Automatic annotation (TrEMBL):
Residues 21-81 form the HTH tetR-type domain. GO terms for molecular function: DNA-binding transcription factor activity; transcription cis-regulatory region binding. The lineage of its organism: Bacteria, Bacillati, Actinomycetota, Actinomycetes, Propionibacteriales. This is HTH tetR-type domain-containing protein. Residues 44-63 bind DNA. Pfam families: TetR_N.
Length: 201
């Protein structure tokens, strides 16, 4: 009788081969889900690999470190939506601001947990790579708002809007994380605040 060399069948682990951009996207999406639920320090590299369905070595290959994965998630989460706003120039400034803020709150509702967490994490870590990501996102958002409401992209107006970013994120934390404000509350407060900021030119 032949001697069995293996006591159980050996099964090959099948992995789907993806293009590099698709693999990076898969990792970022998996990480986004984890970071939406838990803080950066509470998520291990092993968990990130397991959630993305890849090895830790592959994580290092694409991102180098856990920190780079987190930064990729933050960059992704602080981008404004790609859908275009309709022409608003026939509306009053207050109406234009309200429509624009309503559009931005849609993005916050979609990506909000990571987005509103980004500023808090940046404050905790001080001047850091994460702060650079947050600052870049705030500047992009300022330019987008000026363009949407039909005002010139002036350094003064952009600075005023960047300075308002902390207020925007604080309101979104109250709405999305604490449930102390409704979406309509946030929209009303933001519209009033930003009209005042933009009319002060």
């Amino acid at each position: 009788m032949p001697i069995a060399l293996f006591t159980r069948p050996v099964t090959a682990v099948s992995r789907t081969r993806l293009e590099p951009d698709a693999r990076r996207r898969q990792i970022v999406e998996a990480a986004r889900t984890l970071y939406a639920e838990r803080a950066y320090d509470d998520v291990s590299l092993a968990e990130l690999a397991r959630a993305a369905g890849v090895t830790r070595g592959l994580l290092h290959h694409y991102f180098g470190s856990k920190r780079e994965i987190f930064l990729a998630v933050m960059r992704d989460s602080t981008l404004m939506p790609e859908t275009e706003l309709p022409d608003l120039l026939h509306l009053t400034l207050s109406e234009r601001v309200r429509v624009t803020m309503d559009w931005i709150l849609d993005a916050a509702q979609t990506y909000g947990q990571a987005w509103v967490a980004a500023s808090g994490a940046a404050e905790l870590h001080g001047e850091s790579d994460l702060q650079v990501v947050v600052d870049e996102a705030d500047d992009r958002a300022a330019r987008l708002v000026l363009d949407a409401v039909g005002l010139p992209d002036s350094p003064v107006l952009r600075a005023r809007l960047r300075a308002s970013a902390a207020y925007v994120k604080a309101l979104c934390r109250e709405w999305l994380q604490r449930g102390t404000l409704t979406r309509d509350d946030v929209l009303d407060l933001l519209t009033t605040h930003l009209v005042h900021v933009l009319e002060g030119s």
